[in-house]
Design a protein that fits this description.
Blueprint (H helix, E strand, L loop, with lengths): L5 H17 L1 H8 L1 H12 L7 E7 L4 H12 L3 E6 L3 H9 L5 E5 L3 H6 L7 E4 L4 H18 L2 H4 L15 H32 L1 H7 L4 H31 L7 H24 L4 H17 L12 H6 L4 H15 L3 H29 L2
Parallel strand pairs: 1-2, 1-3
Antiparallel strand pairs: 3-4
Length: 366
């Protein structure tokens, strides 16, 4: 039985670093685009809507109706683009996508308001984009309630928002994007480097060398691991600087979790490489596997809102646990005593995936 040799592993690791250093294009792709992607996702995935085109039919033409319209336009979500004398004209423009929504204020609106009675208005919404339609309906309801007198409102609630007082959506999306990119990039790079040995024929040299499977695999893992940890730190700092995202918790806990996720990604990538004859084939297999992992991870949408079967499958998704850790540590200052179940799950995935990749890789060296 051969013994793990530190000097032999170090020589192989230095070789891998030298290969990465020569591949400057890959290094640039790993270090720069992730930060740009985080900024883009933070802005592009923001669900808030602004300047929705609002059409108005004001049959009341009263101070009360003008007060209502002022309340609506005070919210940046709406912008009155046209006023119509009849509902049919408003509906026609809504049908031709010239408006996003319309509001019809009845002639008796002012009378009901003066009597402190609930006043009805008709709202027409273009729901081709269902998400925008739901948000528009929510904004409208909030604006309409703000114009109602207290007797008509019956109950008034006071809300206190914790952990994200400004309700900044970018914090949720950038943390999710960072976790997804860590796993995907680690898988893709590890897969590409492993399958490259087949393409250039060096896998045969490894077969003839005294190097053990563990030495070869660890040598290929260390450079990717270091680069991805740098990517994680850059991503966190970028989110903090651009979007003002807090980091209240332990950096050590975050780094340990990121380390485990990256090793899980590397194990996945190496396993895929053992089933591939070329880098193109490895990329296709990886892209086939990764979308389900991303979609059920809860990185971009809460897993609890998914069908039950996807909630069950998400238990097998390492990205899910990483996203929970990053958000809880950064926003709530959660510590090891709180996040140990997620860390334990990540550790289990790391052990399973890396062991599987070592077994598959060993079969190629025998």
């Amino acid at each position: 039985m051969m013994i793990f040799e530190y000097h032999r592993w170090l020589a192989l690791t230095i070789k891998e670093f030298q290969q990465l250093r020569k591949n400057k294009q890959l290094l640039i792709q790993l270090l720069i685009p992730p930060s740009l992607a985080l900024v883009a996702f933070g802005f592009a995935l923001n669900p808030d809507v602004k300047n929705l085109r609002l059409g108005v039919v004001d049959e009341s033409a009263s101070p009360q109706s003008r007060e209502l319209l002022d309340a609506l336009t005070a919210n940046q979500a709406f912008k009155i683009t046209a006023r119509y004398p009849s509902i049919s004209q408003l509906e026609d423009n809504l049908a031709h996508s010239r408006l996003d929504l319309g509001i019809v204020i009845p002639f008796d609106y002012a009378r009901d308001r003066i009597r402190n009675k609930p006043a009805d208005v008709q709202v027409l919404i273009d729901a081709v984009n269902a998400n925008t339609a739901r948000l528009a309906q929510g904004y409208l309801s909030e604006s309409l309630m703000s114009t109602m007198p207290m007797p008509a409102r019956h109950v008034e609630s006071v809300a206190r928002i914790y952990y994200n007082p400004g309700a900044v959506h970018a914090w949720f999306f950038t943390t999710g994007s960072l976790c997804v990119m860590l796993f995907i990039n680690a898988s893709l790079v590890a897969s590409a480097l492993a399958v490259r040995e087949k393409e250039i024929g060096t896998i045969e040299q490894l077969l003839m060398s005294p190097a053990q499977t563990a030495e070869v695999l660890l040598a290929k893992t260390v450079p990717v691991l270091i680069i991805m940890m740098v990517v994680f730190c850059i991503g966190m700092v970028t989110s903090m600087v651009v979007f003002g995202m807090p980091q209240h918790g332990s950096w050590l806990l975050l780094l340990i979790a990121a380390l485990l996720l990256v090793i899980s990604g590397i194990g996945t990538g190496v396993t895929v490489a053992t089933f591939s004859a070329s880098q193109q084939q490895a990329q296709l297999l990886t892209f086939f596997m990764l979308p389900p992992i991303v979609l059920i991870s809860g990185a971009f949408a809460p897993a609890d809102s998914m069908p039950k079967i996807f909630q069950w499958l998400s238990v097998l998704d390492p990205v899910k646990y990483m996203a929970r850790i990053v958000r809880a540590v950064s926003f709530k200052a959660a510590g090891f005593e709180t996040m140990w179940p997620e860390l334990l799950a990540l550790g289990a995935f790391t052990l399973i995936l890396f062991t599987l990749s070592a077994w598959r890789f060993r079969s190629q060296l025998q």
